[in-house]
Design goal:
The structure holds two protein chains of two kinds. By secondary structure, chain A is mostly helical. Chain A folds into three domains: 2-53 and 305-387, no CATH class; 169-300, no CATH class; 394-545, no CATH class. Chain A has 27 helices and eight strands. Chain A has helices at 2-7, 12-22, 32-41, 46-49, 56-68, 74-82, 88-98, 100-115, 125-137, 142-151, 164-167, 173-185, 205-215, 292-300, 305-320, 340-352, 357-366, 398-408, 411-419, 425-443, 458-466, 468-473, 481-486, 491-503, 509-520, 525-537, 540-543, and strands at residues 218-221, 230-233, 239-241, 252-254, 275-277, 286-287, 394-395, 544-545. Chain A has a two-stranded antiparallel ribbon with strand order 1-2. In chain A, strand 5 (275-277) and strand 6 form a beta hairpin. Chain A starts with a helix and ends with a strand. By secondary structure, chain B is an alpha/beta fold. Chain B has one domain: Alkaline Phosphatase, subunit A (3-Layer(aba) Sandwich), CATH 3.40.720.10. Helix content of chain B is 35%, strand content 16%. Chain B has twelve helices and 17 strands. Chain B starts with 11 loop residues before the first helix and ends in a 14-residue tail after the last strand. The chains are: A mainly alpha, B alpha/beta. Chains A and B meet through helix 21, helix 25, helix 26 and helix 27 of A and helix 7 and helix 8 of B.
């Protein structure tokens, strides 16, 4: 069955067009999300082990965090939970994808992926963020985004922000090579800088230097000291390399080429004709042929299987909590995808839909696979995360944790009211940014390094437990959570409100009893309410997206 | 990748452990007061190894400390005095330390070839030069990871600083992860947010914690992962640390003890270091600063080493008396030494070509002396070593195999510079 519909792939773009027009007729091939589910189901023991679909509350919190980087307000939660319409999940997904919060969240996520939280060198973080945010808001095709990032040379003020990727890496050809390969080709070939990779049989030193050759002639102009420097390029200089393992010290050379790809089609230039503007003191050289300019096009061209696989896999990992290739930057024969056919399908479809990010994410979150419960069914003894039969539990990124805490405690609502007529997403974000930065400082990993595995540090825990910022959020102030629930005299109503506000669900009977109990002996009600809210905020249920 | 090192020190003191004897005696007495638990905990920690690092920040002068050259053109005004090790002389500025020389070993042939503060600091803390492709972890983080215990109450790597600086330095653990990074104790004060904020009573704290526990149990019933466990466990770890929070209250120590250490900053910091080591902290670093003596080198060294000498000697005695010295590696170092040439401001400048480091304790032969400099201290003439050799020596002394690798993302990174080897003459 899967083989059959894979054959229909080349016309997928056309069929989708027909499909959207013809859904009501029920005639056309099924959309991507249905095919995802069938490939996930096509494994032995699926029926026996698969988790049921997530409850509305579970789905609501998850999709909010994944598509808008925060949690819903208690009012939004109520309205969704009370909504009886059959297509409410689809409507919610569309609403979130259209929201300005979506663009902000995607910018946060992709900033960390692309820049590893490194310190600003030449392009201010705000400009770069705005570039990413506008790109995701306008739903810029992913391949175009990557082309802009790799092509901007920083000369034109309008496109300089996109140049941060290379400018803030000091136009260091080694760094650029490592990160282009890791982020866009799914191959962490760092080790291949000095020799063929010792543990990964498919990563060769010539791969490293093939990519390196696109960058090796590039430099910062006027020099690397100037904060306003832009990229320039020489018209000469060839790339040679020697393996440190090679006792004979054989020198090899390469022209620009992607791993396994064709070498760049380079014109043979006569000596003396390498430049349109020759290098001289204080003059920015312009080569007759730019090697660097070839990269963006060659990387995103249709024949680069690695580019589209990596793209599809990264967005999949972002939504599903684990890459089909895991880790996403170790794509090689010894680390095959958990679902090879599915990855091929996703990669092909993403490309055929012109790398339409919103369409792709929409299909992912529409799938039943995404919408499974994360609760392990009682009959399952050991969870196999790479099966996707049970939704993966993922920690909130520092930014999302901050936004969720601020929304849960009513701080966001206080800011909304303060802005009143001038309320929009940017203004609201501006108000909340200082507090968000505090969370990022405590919860983010090392600057300049790819995000590490989740670690709960003492600093983070003490920050949540005893820190002044969180304490302050739990003190009553007009319109915040404590103020709101303190006004509720009915304990049941109070319980509902505090659980919906923080955990996006209604409390269990036992939890209602616990809250009532905690309030009974309380001498100072607002303080007691603050401590109850703290317990919910400090719970694992809040710290993770489940 | 590594087994946690639990095996005992090979020192003769271990076979006849005074510690076990005192521990046993203390157990009987303590249990009368219902204090059995701490004594047992301490007894258990005896099988663990620890490190005390004293960092003389700025670059202490080897000529005014471990390798004096009196009567030469570079020697300066101070005499060399005999020590408890016949034939070994050190500067007269360290009379108390001199009497403990039999517990210590000197490395007089250091050549680290780096006269920059930042780079020298990196070399001495990581055992490597800075490289573009690898960010090496600090020795303290490596020890916290390889020698520490997962359920320890206190962080594995605590740095007592003279003041200022952040509390949690997640960067110095690099690829080992922030869990093993240093926690700075600025001027001996506990790290940020350790104590219950005002307005939160003990009872209210217990109640909110109980509710958090219940919620977590409910969640863990169907959604337990390694990550959610790590998160909930971090609260238990924080609670254990908070319970030990009084460890920072050194003003509660017997006044006579405080007097023995000295009532100045470094004295208090050394006393705190002892308390932390006693409680099983794997790596305690104490920074003593103001050694960057480009002018008035001699006056400053009278002052700084005058402050250093007695608390350091007292700390050595206390560790030895408690049976902890044989399981605690002691390192006294700087980022480099100081020039033999005395400049026109009576100062000495940065100098990494011929200087000294002092070691002692766990796995180190007392009375050791390795390396020689020429008559006026301008060059190493025998057994030249660098930080790579020191790191092999540290790891071997602590019972670790220094030839092993770390494996961040499956990439092998040697624990110590493969081009160097341990200073075997010093290993017990």
């Amino acid at each position: 069955m899967p083989a059959l519909f894979l054959k229909r792939l080349p016309c997928a773009a056309l069929t989708l067009f027909l499909f959207t027009a013809a859904t009501t007729l029920g005639a056309e091939p099924e959309p991507l999300h249905g095919r995802i589910d069938r490939l996930i189901a096509a494994t032995p023991d699926y029926t026996k082990n698969v988790a049921p679909l997530a409850s509305d509350a579970e789905f609501l919190r998850r999709v909010y965090l994944d598509l808008s980087g925060t949690i819903p307000t208690s009012a939004e939660a109520r309205s969704f939970l009370n909504d009886k319409s059959a297509d409410k999940r689809v409507k919610l997904i569309d609403k979130l994808l259209a929201s300005p919060e979506y663009a902000r969240h995607m910018a946060n996520v992709w900033d960390v992926i692309l820049m590893d939280r490194r310190r600003d060198l030449r392009v201010p973080k705000n400009d770069w963020h705005e570039f990413l945010r506008n790109s995701f808001a306008s739903n810029k095709p992913y391949d175009e985004l990557v082309r802009e990032i790799l092509s901007a040379d920083g000369t034109d003020a309008k496109t300089r922000a996109a140049g941060k990727f290379l400018l803030d890496r000091d136009m260091d050809a080694y760094q650029a090579t490592r990160d282009v390969s890791r982020l866009f080709l799914g191959r962490n070939i760092r080790c291949a800088q000095c020799h063929d990779h010792p543990n990964v049989p498919d990563y060769f030193q010539e791969h490293f230097y093939g990519i390196y050759a696109y960058f090796s002639r590039s430099l910062l102009f006027p020099d690397d000291k100037a904060p306003t420097a832009s990229l320039a390029e020489k018209g000469e200089g060839d790339v040679t390399f020697v393996s440190v393992f090679d006792k004979a010290k054989t020198t090899k050379s390469t022209t620009p080429r992607l791993p396994g790809g064709k070498p760049v089609d380079e014109p043979k230039l006569e000596k003396g004709k390498e430049y349109t503007v020759a290098p001289a003191k204080g003059v920015k050289p312009v080569p007759a042929f730019s090697r660097r300019a070839q990269l963006a096009t060659m990387l995103t061209a249709g024949d680069s299987d690695a580019f589209r696989r990596t793209a599809a896999n990264r967005f999949w990992a972002q939504m599903l909590g684990r890459g089909l290739i895991d880790p996403p930057d170790l794509d090689f024969s010894g680390n095959p995808p958990s679902h090879p056919e599915l990855l091929d399908l996703l990669a092909q479809e993403f490309m055929d839909h012109k790398y339409d990010v919103k369409w792709f994410l929409r299909e992912l979150v529409l799938s039943e696979t995404y919408q499974r419960s994360s609760a392990v069914p009682p009959q399952v003894k050991e969870v196999d995360h790479e099966r996707y039969w049970i939704a993966n539990v993922k920690p909130l990124a520092p930014e999302a944790l901050a936004m969720a805490v601020l929304e849960a405690t009513g701080q966001t609502e206080v800011a909304r009211r303060a802005l009143s007529k001038n309320l929009n997403e940017s203004a609201l974000h501006g108000r909340l940014a200082p507090q968000m930065q505090e969370f990022v400082r405590v919860f983010a990993g090392r600057p300049g390094e790819p995000e590490e595995d989740f670690q709960a540090t003492l600093e983070q825990t003490l920050f949540l437990k005893n820190g002044a910022l969180v304490r302050g959020l739990l003190a009553p102030a007009p319109a915040d959570l404590i103020d709101r629930i303190n006004a509720l005299t009915d304990v049941n109503a109070l319980c509902d409100e505090v659980f919906l506000s923080i955990l996006t669900r209604r409390p269990t009977d036992e939890e209602r009893k616990d809250v009532a109990e905690a309030l009974k002996g309380a001498t100072n009600r607002p303080v007691a309410l603050g401590e109850i809210a703290w317990a919910l905020l400090a719970s694992a249920e809040f710290r993770f997206n489940h | 990748m590594f087994k946690r090192c639990q095996y005992a020190c090979q020192s003769p003191e271990h076979t006849l452990s005074r510690r076990a004897f005192f521990g046993g005696a203390a157990l009987g007495a303590a249990s009368l007061f219902g204090l059995t638990q701490p004594a047992v905990a301490r007894q258990l920690s005896a099988s663990q190894r620890r490190v005390l690092m004293i960092y003389l920040h700025g670059g202490a002068s080897q000529l005014e400390s471990w390798d004096p050259k009196p009567g030469t053109d570079t020697g300066g005004p101070f005499r060399a005095i005999p020590t408890s090790v016949p034939g070994t002389h050190i500067s007269e500025l360290l009379p108390h330390t001199a009497l403990r020389m039999h517990r210590l070993a000197l490395v007089r042939g250091m050549n680290t070839a780096e006269d920059d503060h930042g780079k020298g600091d990196y070399i001495m803390h990581t055992g490597r030069r800075q490289e573009p492709n690898v960010d090496y972890p600090h020795l303290g983080a490596v020890c916290a990871k390889l020698l520490g215990s997962e359920d320890a109450a206190l962080p594995g790597y605590i740095h007592i600083t003279p003041g200022g600086g952040g509390n949690f330095n997640k960067k110095d653990a690099t690829f080992l992860g922030p869990k093993y990074a240093s926690v700075s104790v600025s001027d001996g004060k506990p790290p940020a947010n350790l104590f219950r904020p005002t307005g939160l009573t003990e009872a209210a704290d217990a109640q909110r914690e109980a509710l958090r526990h219940k919620l977590n149990e409910h969640f863990a019933r169907s959604r337990k992962t390694a990550q959610t466990e790590a998160y909930t466990e971090s609260y238990e770890q924080a609670a254990r640390f908070i319970r030990e929070g009084n460890i920072f209250a050194i003003d509660k120590e017997d006044p006579r003890t405080q007097d023995r250490y000295g009532r100045h900053d470094f004295g208090r910091h050394c006393l705190l270091a002892r308390r932390l080591l006693e409680e099983g902290v794997t790596f305690v670093k104490v920074t003593h600063t103001n050694y960057d003596t480009h002018h008035e080198n001699f006056d400053f060294h009278i002052e700084q080493l005058g402050e250093f000498d007695r608390p350091f000697a007292t700390l050595l005695d206390d560790l030895a008396d408690r049976g902890l010295l044989e399981s605690t590696l002691v390192i006294v170092m700087s980022e480099f030494g100081r020039t033999p040439r005395i400049n026109h401001l009576y100062g000495r400048d940065h100098w990494s070509k011929a200087w000294s480091v002092c070691l002692g304790g766990c796995g180190i032969k007392g009375e050791g002396l390795v390396g020689k400099t020429n008559a006026n201290g301008t060059a190493v003439t025998d057994r030249e070593v660098n930080a790579g050799h020191l790191f092999h020596t540290y790891f071997r002394a602590l019972g670790l195999d220094s030839k092993k690798n770390h494996y961040p993302n499956d990439r092998p990174i040697p624990m110590a510079d493969p081009k160097a080897d341990a200073i075997k003459e010093l290993l017990a």
